[in-house]
Design goal:
heterodimer, A: Cytochrome Bc1 Complex, Chain D, domain 2, metal-binding (chain A), heme (chain A), heme binding (chain A)
C-alpha cells in the first residue's frame, strides 16, 4: 500500500517539475491561481483564518471592525516579511493587539500562511 | 513561589491592562479597581447611565435593543421562573426545603457571591443551593442548565431591584488573594487565539466581531440566569464563562471551580452599585 503511494507522489512531483520547466507560463499561472484561491478560503473560513471576524476585505460578507480594512496590500506592505510577521505574531508589533498569533500559536500551517499572503497581495 | 507565578502571569498582560488596571493584580485595591473599571466604561459610552450597563450589549446598541425590547414583552424566561418557584416550594424527602437554608426567603442575590472566612472560599448562589440540597440528603443539581437555572430564575426574579454589593473584607488576606486571582484571570491572555476577557469586553467593547457587538464587561454579572436564543434554554453565569473560554480555544474550567468562583467574585465586585435584574434574555 505504502510504496505505490510514495511512487505516485514522486511521479507527481516529477511531473510538477516537468510541468514547471516545460510549460512555464500557463501552468504557473494556474498554480498561483490555486494558491490564491486556497488563501482566500483559509482567510474566510471561520475555523481557520476567520479574518472576516475583524477585517473588511474583498467580497467578504458581514465583516467585523476590530481591525483595519485589508486593502491596497502591495502598496502598504511592500515587504512580504513584514506582512508575514503581522500574521505570525502581531503582539511583537503591538502588545495590546486584538489579532491572534496565527503562526506562533499554530492556528495556521506554514503553507496556509503562504497562501493567505499570496491572496492578500491581490487585494 | 506562588506569588512569583501570579506576578509573572500578570506581567505578561501588562500591555493589555496597563491603561486600565495596575501592572500587578495586588498593586491596586478593590475600591480603586471599581473606580477604574467603571469610569473606563462610563467614559467610553458617555450617554449610557450606570444602571443601564446591566442590559449588556443592549445598553450600547440601539438596533439590537429594539428587538430585545420586543422580546421582553413576552419574556422567554417566564416559564422558568414559574418552574423555579415550584421547585422552591417542593419539600425535600426529609420534609425540609430551601426556605430552611435561606432563612430570609428566595430574594438572595444581594448576598452572593460572598467570602466565607471560615472555609476560606468564595460561595456563589448556585453553590449554596447545592450545599443546601446535600445537607438535606438530596442529590446536587447539575451546574449549568436545568433545575438549578430555574431556581436561580425564581430567586433572581424575587431579587430584582437589589443592588450588587460584593464585599472584599478589609484585612482578610485570603479574601483579597481570591479577588486578585479572579482579577488576574480577567486580564490574562489565554487559549490558542490569545485573548483575555478584558481584550473583548473592555478594549473591544462596542466593536463588531462579524455582526456581533461585544458588550461592556461592566454589569456582566447582574442579569443571570440568562435565556439565550442560541442555547434555546436558560443558562448560568459559569456556563457563559465556559463558552467564552472555548471561543478563544482555551480549556474551560469547571462550573463552580475555584477559578470561576474567584472570577465571579472579582467581576461581580466590579458591578457594585448596579441593580440585579435577572433573569434576562439575550441573543
Amino acid at each position: 500500500m505504502r510504496k505505490p503511494a510514495k511512487l505516485t507522489a514522486i511521479a507527481a512531483s516529477f511531473a510538477a517539475v516537468l510541468a514547471v520547466s516545460l510549460v512555464p507560463v500557463s501552468s504557473m499561472a494556474e498554480g498561483a491561481k490555486e494558491t490564491i484561491a486556497m488563501g482566500k478560503k483559509v482567510a474566510y473560513d471561520r475555523k481557520l483564518g476567520n479574518c472576516l471576524a475583524c477585517h473588511m476585505m474583498d467580497d467578504g460578507v458581514s465583516p467585523g471592525d476590530l481591525g483595519p480594512p485589508l486593502v491596497a496590500m502591495k502598496t502598504r506592505f511592500p515587504d512580504p516579511a513584514k506582512l508575514r510577521a503581522q500574521l505570525e505574531d502581531p503582539m511583537a508589533a503591538n502588545a495590546n493587539t486584538m489579532m491572534p498569533p496565527f503562526g506562533k500559536h499554530n492556528i495556521l500551517t506554514d503553507d496556509q500562511l503562504d497562501a493567505v499572503i499570496e491572496y492578500l497581495y491581490t487585494l | 513561589m506562588k506569588k512569583t507565578v501570579v506576578a509573572i502571569a500578570i506581567l505578561c498582560v501588562v500591555g493589555l491592562s496597563s491603561t486600565v488596571v495596575a501592572k500587578n493584580a495586588a498593586d491596586t485595591t478593590p475600591a480603586q479597581d471599581i473606580e477604574t473599571y467603571r469610569s473606563y466604561f462610563t467614559k467610553k459610552f458617555p450617554g449610557v447611565p450606570l444602571q443601564e450597563f446591566s442590559n449588556g450589549v443592549y445598553a450600547i446598541d440601539k438596533v439590537s435593543r429594539d428587538s430585545w425590547e420586543a422580546i421582553e414583552e413576552f419574556p422567554p424566561y417566564e416559564p422558568f421562573i414559574e418552574e423555579g418557584e415550584e421547585l422552591w416550594n417542593t419539600p425535600f424527602a426529609n420534609g425540609k426545603g430551601y426556605a430552611d437554608c435561606f432563612k430570609d426567603g428566595p430574594a438572595q442575590r444581594k448576598n452572593y457571591p460572598h467570602w466565607d472566612a471560615k472555609r476560606k472560599m468564595v460561595v456563589t448562589l448556585p453553590l449554596a443551593i447545592n450545599e443546601c440540597r446535600e445537607a438535606n440528603g438530596e442529590k446536587p443539581l447539575k451546574w449549568k442548565v436545568g433545575a438549578i437555572a430555574s431556581l436561580l430564575a425564581y430567586m433572581g426574579y424575587e431579587s430584582r431591584g437589589q443592588t450588587t454589593n460584593v464585599v472584599i473584607p478589609e484585612g482578610d488576606a485570603d479574601a483579597l488573594a481570591a479577588y486578585n486571582e479572579g482579577k488576574s484571570q480577567y486580564f490574562s491572555r489565554r487559549g490558542q487565539l490569545n485573548f483575555a476577557c478584558a481584550s473583548c469586553h473592555m478594549q473591544s467593547s462596542g466593536m463588531h466581531v462579524r455582526t456581533d457587538i461585544l458588550s461592556p464587561g461592566l454589569g456582566h454579572t447582574t442579569g443571570w440566569p440568562v435565556y439565550r436564543s442560541k442555547w434555546g434554554n436558560l443558562g448560568t453565569l459559569h456556563r457563559r464563562f465556559g463558552g467564552c473560554n472555548k471561543q478563544v480555544r482555551a480549556k474551560p474550567f469547571k462550573a463552580q471551580s475555584k477559578e470561576y468562583r474567584n472570577l465571579e467574585y472579582f467581576l461581580t465586585h466590579m458591578s457594585n452599585g448596579i441593580e440585579f435584574n435577572g433573569p434576562s434574555a439575550r441573543k
